[in-house]
């Protein structure tokens, strides 16, 4: 029946996950493997799990909707569940008169938003097609999303397919290129962006707080208001990628709120369904929607009724349990614990972040901030050591100029307790010492 050697259980799965424990069950911020070992979930997978594991009411909502009507195609019938989800979401979104296009994940949402931006200009007779994005950004794995991503290592094998993106500087305070840093950095970045916004630019896409690419980089106070102004003045649509930062992760429903920014388009995923169902969202303003008119676009699982049911249930849990405020409160405790445990370490260059999205950047030399040679795979080794110590943690390998570095990225479920984040910091510090002394 089978062909060749597949190396035991799961050998037919594409991912080469040799040596990893197998998850058995999970609850709250704890995952248990098939040997009964418990792991604190320090990153909710790839910063996906927002409401915690094992929330029965979300499971029930998914099952109930699947039983009622799992699927109708949006060109054939409306879904009451999708309609209700968009209406419940609308008041929470930092977008004027928002229109919600549900898809299956972040990359699909990014592709959808970029096509919306192009369609918006085209419908008004403008040949704007260039997208501007930032160095070190991560926006997804599909070809369009990879092209707007600014990570050289990820792009290199596929370069013949890429190249339509113009690259702006990233607000990365630890490695800020602004000449007068730390003064006036945001304004400096906005001026650099302005120079790139020629008449052929359709959109500027960026994360409010850089997550998977650079690792929890929070811009200064000036950055977002100045960037939003520049985009508006140049007629360029602002696309906020809130795939990682949305749904309470940073202590606000959406991270744009920290700076009062109202993007023309917004994409989200991850925390929208907390991993209970594949769900992403591309949102545009009513103005953009009206201008686009007919939009020929779609995926097999766009506007999925079960996805909408999962999204509604997650919204309810986030609201009823006050998890957005908890993210701000417990995030501050996590920050303090990380600084206490890791602050003086010889390889810890920077501890940063906002809410329950935190990054610890490891460097070979504190004085020069030189990263470790990527071949040493320092972040990956710390992640493995952390797992041995009962902590699941994610990492990012981006530096602002597209080079690779080592950042440990923390984004635990928003239900994590103050006591648990203290243990997260303690285990992470032990893992860093296991690898780097
Ligand atoms: N944008 C950002 C900011 C992300 O963090 C990610 C996923 N890490 C994506 C887009 C792509 O989302 P997905 O993996 O769901 O396709």
TrEMBL record:
It comes from the Bacteria. One of its GO terms (molecular function) is transaminase activity. The keyword Transferase applies. The keyword Transferase applies. Keywords: Aminotransferase, Pyridoxal phosphate, Transferase. SUPFAM superfamilies: PLP-dependent transferases (SSF53383). Belongs to the class-III pyridoxal-phosphate-dependent aminotransferase family. This is Aminotransferase class-III.
